[in-house]
Specification:
- It is built from 6 helices and no strands.
- Helix content is 84%, strand content 0%.
- Helix 1 packs antiparallel against helix 4.
């Protein structure tokens, strides 16, 4: 079940990075597809909770499974929120900072899927290296966030645009933080079960 959530997250991140936004009219489709991924993720999390309530014995502690599922869902929620804000603000073109954020988020999603695969195969000792990579991508997003804000405040004279882009950058940085939370939860699982 965690693999389903992680695969859905990777598919969502891939769509986020690969969809060609050409104009404002594309934003509705973009937001709707990402909302569908988010809704699918919610269904998976609901299934995890239902199954945890029925299971007598779980392969790892039930709290860890739930924490992992919820943190994966937070990443999906953040991506959905990003798409919704683009539509609300009618921003149909990614600037260089947004593109770089999205690349890092895609890389995090790929690493997350790898780690959940390793978890399902009980290869706990191999997870740590991938969790560290996720944290490195998140760290790159922290640096990127500061650079993006500095550039925004020093060059943009339109206060509305400043507000819009500041919020967009914050949402993307938050998505990266959620990815780091997934990595932290995976390290907790390793610590308890290795």
């Amino acid at each position: 079940m965690l693999l389903d959530i992680a695969q859905n997250l990777k598919d969502s991140a891939d769509f986020l990075g690969n969809f060609e936004l050409n104009n404002v009219s594309d934003l509705k489709e973009f937001a709707n597809v990402l909302k569908a991924y988010e809704s699918k993720g919610d269904q998976y999390v609901h299934t995890v909770i239902t199954e945890l309530n029925k299971a007598f014995i779980t392969p790892i502690e039930r709290e860890d499974i739930l924490q992992l599922a919820m943190s994966l869902d937070d990443v999906l929620d953040g991506i959905d929120n990003f798409a919704a804000m683009l539509e609300i603000y009618s921003i149909a073109k990614f600037d260089e900072y947004v593109k770089e954020f999205v690349k890092n988020i895609q890389s995090c999603a790929a690493e997350i899927l790898l780690t959940i695969n390793l978890l399902s195969e009980k290869k706990l000792s191999q997870i740590s290296a991938h969790a560290i990579k996720i944290k490195e991508y998140e760290s790159q997003c922290d640096i990127l966030y500061r650079r993006a804000l500095k550039q925004l405040f020093s060059t943009c004279k339109d206060p509305i645009q400043v507000i819009q882009y500041k919020e967009i950058y914050e949402i993307l940085e938050e998505v990266a933080d959620y990815c780091q939370t997934v990595a932290n939860n995976l390290e907790t699982v390793i610590m308890k079960n290795a």
